[in-house]
Amino acid sequence: MGKKENSFQADLIKEMEQRYDGCIILKNDANYKQGIPDLTVFYKERYAILESKKDSGSRFRPNQKTYLNLFDEWSFARRIEPENKEEVLNELDAFFGIQ
């Protein structure tokens, strides 16, 4: 993960911790299972999976799309990058029941 992606991800985590008071955010270990998305966000009785990218031009690594599709069937999963951050967080607000 490049420096820019690390910085985006760190800022995103801080923003979500403020936005979803009491949430628990875990950084997943891609070395344990190749392609597993970066973040799991637990909020009340729901969870979401997010794959953070430094920009919209960043490519998926092997299995990332597969896992995002699977987790989106089970719960909520999205790719998030600076260009779509507000759109994804607004969708996440609706999913978590935040108005």
Write the layout of secondary structure elements.
Layout: H1 3-19, E1 24-27, E2 39-43, E3 46-52, H2 64-74, E4 77-80, H3 85-96
Parallel strand pairs: 3-4
Antiparallel strand pairs: 1-2, 2-3
Describe the protein:
This protein is α+β, with helices and mostly antiparallel strands and 99 residues long. The protein has a single domain (3-96), classed as Trna Endonuclease, Chain: A, domain 1 (3-Layer(aba) Sandwich), CATH 3.40.1350.10. It is 40% helix and 20% strand. It contains 3 helices and 4 strands; from the N terminus they run H-E-E-E-H-E-H. Strands 1-2-3-4 form a 4-stranded mixed sheet. Strand 2 (39-43) and strand 3 form a beta hairpin. The longest helix is centred in the N-terminal third of the chain and has 17 residues, at 3-19. The protein is globular and about 35 Å long. The chain starts with a helix and ends with a helix. The model has no long low-confidence stretch (mean pLDDT 93).
